[in-house]
Design goal:
Layout lengths: L21 H19 L5 H8 L3 H29 L1 H21 L3 H29 L2 H32 L8 H4 L1 H15 L13 H24 L3 H26 L8 H5 L1 H31 L3 H8 L1 H21 L3 H23 L5 H27 L7 H31 L4 H24 L7
Helix pairs in contact: 1-5, 1-6, 1-8, 3-4, 3-5, 3-9, 3-17, 4-5, 4-8, 5-6, 5-17, 6-13, 6-14, 6-16, 9-10, 9-17, 12-13, 12-16, 12-17, 12-18, 14-16, 15-16, 15-18, 17-18
């Protein structure tokens, strides 16, 4: 397909858009859940991993960062490969590799092996996850697509919470004396079952005119993300050596080079990795502008909350996981009705969710200020319910806004763009607010003051999302 500077049209898939039945939808949503769960599942396990493998602070951060960086860098390429070689095929390959790398993570004998295995696991996730959105885009239409995208958005948020809850339960259980290892090994039987079911239930599709591989675009996108994420996630722990500063200086030049290469390639009728025409469409442009601060806030909240529960309130991995349960339940129930709310209120659902989210964060900050250090799970519950409702309204609808009008032949690219934005923003949030929290919690403010201040700042971020969401196109 030749991409022009006009808004993309709706080409036809070679598979004539095979229908995605309920069993297939459940299977691909399971595939979407696994990478998200594993991005967050290590948060509550880091103290246990440290005790077992005697890792340094920088190495522990790499256990988280290596996964997220590989994931974010390769997501768009993963979507492009699915469009070219078949989305079900890449889904199966990604799920198989994710299962294998999970096994390696669970058996890692030392911290360095775990870091490399986590990077490989992130790369496998980048092959797997974009196919989910592509399969949904290619196999659904109309109200069916709207509901499926809503389920996808709900799965993303629920998986985030379930990741930390499941991690806490598995670490606390210490099954057969295996400590933290079951948080990875549990993926192996789930992945094997998913492979068997996917072969029978997931329809195949691919782009009629696959766009091929944009080598320069892929390299420059990787350089852009690496030059930003690596120093932000590792600079503080390493004491900001010269190379981390050099990477940050390189970042704007890499982004500018990427934008120029993509625009020139598109103008020549070529096949850019990220077609500028796609980004210029109202749904994608306004949706991503709101999605960046939203996911920055969400990722940093999950990290700061998990650290505070364990190291500040000393609830332990199981107690920390249980403290997330009210949020998970509220998110799940809200997601079930979000389709009906969008059908009635349209784009208003996102700013309403942002407002509720900001209120929940302020309630949480106030509860911590008044009841610290005897803050119980029950005292946290009202704020967590509000936060779950706000996220359930905003997150699911943002996915619909961005993807609702992406052409079928660009489904893989659209899914890759959205998930790359999501993962990059999650990592940015952890890097910025997580580093701020870590610095403040060891100073005069200690855990109490640092937690209250950072949560209050995240409430401001939620209000920013509320303002930006007022410009979103109607997803109906």
């Amino acid at each position: 397909m030749t991409t022009t500077t006009n808004a993309p049209v709706h080409p036809t898939d070679v598979s004539a858009r095979p229908a995605l039945a309920s069993a297939g939808l459940v299977t691909v949503l399971l595939g979407a859940a696994l990478p998200v769960i594993d991005f967050f599942i290590v948060n509550v396990a880091l103290p246990t991993i440290d005790a077992d493998l005697h890792a340094s602070t920088a190495t522990l951060e790499l256990v988280v960062a290596a996964y997220g960086i590989a994931y974010a860098v390769l997501l768009v390429l993963g979507g492009r490969l699915g469009d070219a070689f078949g989305r079900r095929r890449l889904f199966l390959v990604g799920l198989a590799l994710f299962t294998l790398t999970s096994l390696v993570c669970g058996l890692a004998p030392d911290a360095l092996t775990l870091v490399f295995a986590r990077a490989a696991q992130g790369a496998a996730s980048a092959l797997l996850l974009p196919q989910v959105l592509s399969i949904i885009q290619a196999g659904t239409s109309g109200a069916h697509r709207s509901r499926a995208l809503g389920y996808y958005g709900a799965m993303g948020g629920i998986s985030t919470v379930v990741g930390q809850l499941l991690g806490g339960v598995l670490v606390a259980a210490d099954l057969w004396g295996t400590s933290w290892r079951p948080i990875f090994l549990v993926n192996v039987p789930i992945g094997l079952v998913g492979l068997l079911v996917a072969r029978r239930t997931v329809p195949d599709s691919r782009a009629a005119n696959p766009l091929g591989v944009d080598r320069w675009g892929t390299a420059l996108l990787a350089a852009s993300l690496l030059s930003l994420l690596v120093p932000l996630m590792e600079g503080s722990a390493l004491g900001w050596p010269w190379w981390t500063v050099a990477l940050l200086v390189l970042f704007p030049f890499a982004v500018l080079s990427f934008a120029r290469i993509e625009s020139r390639l598109e103008a020549r009728g070529g096949m850019p990795l990220l077609p500028p025409a796609l980004v210029r469409t109202a749904n994608v442009r306004h949706g991503l502008v709101a999605a960046v601060p939203f996911f920055c806030g969400f990722g940093s909240f999950m990290f700061v909350y998990a650290v505070t529960l364990q190291d500040g309130l000393h609830l332990g991995p199981l107690g920390s996981g249980l403290a997330l349960t009210p949020m998970a339940v509220a998110y799940f129930l809200t997601s079930l009705v979000s389709s009906h709310l969008v059908a009635r209120f349209g784009r208003k659902v996102v700013p309403i969710g942002g407002t509720i989210l900001a209120l929940g964060l302020l309630v949480l900050a106030g509860s911590a200020w008044l009841a610290w250090p005897s803050l119980s799970v029950w005292q946290l519950a009202p704020a967590m319910v509000l936060i779950g409702v706000g996220n359930g309204l905003a997150m699911t609808t943002l996915f619909r806004v961005v993807l609702s009008r992406v052409p079928h032949d660009l489904a893989g690219i659209g899914g890759g763009v959205m998930t790359t934005t999501q993962q990059t923003s999650l990592a940015l949030g952890v890097a910025v607010f997580g580093s701020l929290f870590a610095g403040l919690s060891t100073g005069p403010l200690r855990f109490e003051g640092a937690f209250v201040l950072v949560i209050a700042l995240l409430a401001v971020v939620a209000l920013v999302v509320t303002g930006l969401a007022r410009r979103l196109p109607d997803p109906r």
